[in-house]
Write a structure and sequence with these properties.
Low-confidence stretches: 21-27
CATH architecture: Beta Barrel
Largest sheet: 8 strands, antiparallel, barrel
Structural class: mainly beta
Mean pLDDT: 85
Helix content: 10-25%
Length: 162
């Protein structure tokens, strides 16, 4: 667990260094990679409650909605989670954006009632100048289940924006 936290802090530090390097180097092209993003599809993996297929839609430059679907099983017994979240962009930099996300994850189970998971995270989304339609993100936050458990959340994902 300690290694995961240290690794996350190193990745966050690296992201901050990228932002500061852009400000310090005037030769870097100042085009904002996330300026015209609307619909993005891809994968979002969240620990501890799963995730796989993801769709994001930026309604405005600083507000988006996201749906994440994670299913497994077979035809008669499908299990998984369905997550709906709202994203708010806190800082819009040319290559790296900082955002917060809050949402609810609802388990899908044929076996009866499962607890609903409420989560709040902070995230960093990295753009790629060599592939402006792609964006990679990492997230860290907290989750609370309706049966009273509080836990840490870690997520990562990659999206292709049209």
């Amino acid at each position: 667990m300690h290694r995961r936290i240290v690794s996350l802090l190193l990745v966050l530090l690296f992201g901050c260094c990228l932002v500061w390097a852009e400000d310090a180097d005037p030769s870097i092209d100042e085009a904002n990679l996330s300026a015209e993003r609307t619909l993005g599809v891809g994968m979002q993996l969240d620990f501890p409650f799963g995730g796989l297929l993801s769709g994001r839609y930026w309604f405005a430059p600083d507000f988006a909605g996201e749906a994440i679907l994670f299913l497994w099983g077979y035809a008669s017994e499908v299990e998984g989670t369905l997550t709906a979240r709202a994203l708010y962009r806190i800082a819009d930099r040319p290559v790296v954006d900082f955002y917060s996300a809050a949402g609810v994850s609802m388990p899908v189970s044929p076996y009866g009632w499962e607890p609903v998971i409420l989560s709040a995270t902070g995230g960093i989304e990295f753009g790629f100048r060599f592939a402006p339609s792609l964006a990679w993100n990492i997230e860290f936050g907290v989750a609370y289940t309706t049966d009273g458990e509080l836990s840490m959340v870690f997520g990562t994902g990659i999206h292709f924006y049209f």
